[in-house]
Structures are given as structure tokens and as C-alpha cells.
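User: Design a sequence. Structure:
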């Protein structure tokens, strides 16, 4: 029986499933639109910004297979992977490309949403920092970005199914338990990503949410009262 080996640390797994929930919420509320859903859409966007900020910090502070250095090393092993000689744990080179594409696109989508408007009532938390014309351009690109994210999610799900059917790798289970089967003796369990690193990454995420929320902006003065018509 193959030995189980630790690959994904607990903070990374919690991040992953919270991101899934937040992205689904953001897509559904964005699709439904309207004043009744826009507040939830904004909340989902702020949560996504916090989660992405945490993940970026975790690229440097996390355990072995969550780190940027490991992802880049895997990416450089693309020729070996295509020849069927890749024997590492964690994301394979194509998986790394998927991670970078997803994180990059979600970052764009969440940040651009801070400056959007619906043309009538709603404006993003940082709308006042840009011109109305630039906000309109960002709004149009933000709506287009939804379809790109849906396409990336579709590719991600298909890749999981292909791994399960062709290679018998249950990637969903690994992201739930944090462990997978050790196939080669040279494969080592993940190290690092301890509580102090987690607190630092969490603080960075909290600061990012605060900045994105626009709570630090001065409250605009009330509109002047209309002069009475005598």
C-alpha cells in the first residue's frame, strides 16, 4: 500500500475552498445583477481580494509546495513533464500555468471591480479615485472578465476530471486532506508554513481588504440644499 505524504498545508486548503465559494458567489451575484444583489457582489469581491492577498503572501511564507520557488521550478520542468519524466509533488507545470492564469485574472477582476459603476446608483468602493470615463471603461472590461474566468474554471474542472479518469489521481481529495500517495522515494513531504507565517499572511490580507474597501477615504460633503423657488 502506497504511503501517504503531506503536500498541501491547512491554510492553503482553506484558502482554496474559500476562494471557490467566493468566486461562485461573485459570479452568481454579478450575473443576477440589480440593486438587491450588488452589495453581495461587492462583499464577495472584497473577500476575494483578501484571499488573493493572502495567497500572494503565502507564495513566500507558505510550505514547500505552496511557494513561488517551487512553482517556478516546476514550470521549468515542462520539457520533462511533456516527455513523461516529471516525478515531483505539487502542481505539475501545466497546473502552475493554470494557477498563475487564475490568480492573475481573479486579481484583475477583483481590483477592477473597485472602480466600476452601474450607470445609475452603484459605484465601487474606490470609484472616486478615477474619472467617470475611466470607470466606464473598467466596467466594460470587468463584465468581459467574467467570461474569461468562467472559461478558466471550465478548463480547471476538465483537468481535474482528466487526472481522475486517466491517471487515477484524485486532486479534489488531496486538496481536502492535504495528502497524496508517495510514488517515488525522492518525494519529500511539505515543510514550513507555520503559525507565525500564517499570522503575517493574514495581517497582509486584512490590510488589503481595508484599503480596497475605501473606508479610509474622507466622507464627501453633502450636496448643497436646493435654493427655494420664491
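Assistant: Done.
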Amino acid at each position: 500500500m502506497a504511503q501517504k505524504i503531506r503536500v498541501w498545508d491547512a491554510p492553503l486548503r482553506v484558502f482554496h475552498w474559500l476562494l471557490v465559494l467566493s468566486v461562485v458567489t461573485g459570479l452568481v451575484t454579478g450575473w443576477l445583477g440589480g440593486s438587491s444583489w450588488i452589495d453581495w457582489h461587492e462583499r464577495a469581491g472584497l473577500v476575494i481580494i483578501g484571499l488573493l492577498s493572502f495567497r500572494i503572501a503565502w507564495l513566500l511564507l507558505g510550505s514547500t509546495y505552496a511557494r513561488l520557488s517551487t512553482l517556478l521550478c516546476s514550470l521549468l520542468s515542462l520539457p520533462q513533464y511533456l516527455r513523461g519524466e516529471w516525478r515531483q509533488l505539487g502542481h505539475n507545470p501545466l497546473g502552475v500555468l493554470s494557477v498563475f492564469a487564475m490568480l492573475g485574472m481573479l486579481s484583475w477582476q477583483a481590483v477592477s471591480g473597485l472602480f466600476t459603476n452601474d450607470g445609475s446608483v452603484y459605484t465601487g468602493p474606490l470609484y472616486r479615485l478615477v474619472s467617470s470615463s475611466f470607470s466606464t471603461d473598467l466596467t466594460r472590461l470587468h463584465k468581459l472578465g467574467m467570461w474569461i474566468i468562467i472559461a478558466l474554471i471550465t478548463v480547471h474542472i476538465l483537468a481535474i476530471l482528466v487526472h481522475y479518469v486517466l491517471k487515477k489521481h484524485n486532486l479534489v481529495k488531496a486538496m481536502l486532506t492535504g495528502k497524496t500517495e508517495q510514488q517515488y522515494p525522492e518525494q519529500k513531504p511539505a515543510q514550513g508554513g507555520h503559525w507565525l507565517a500564517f499570522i503575517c499572511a493574514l495581517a497582509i490580507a486584512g490590510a488589503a481588504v481595508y484599503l480596497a474597501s475605501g473606508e479610509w477615504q474622507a466622507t464627501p460633503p453633502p450636496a448643497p440644499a436646493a435654493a427655494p423657488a420664491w
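The mean pLDDT is 92. The longest strand covers residues 4-6.
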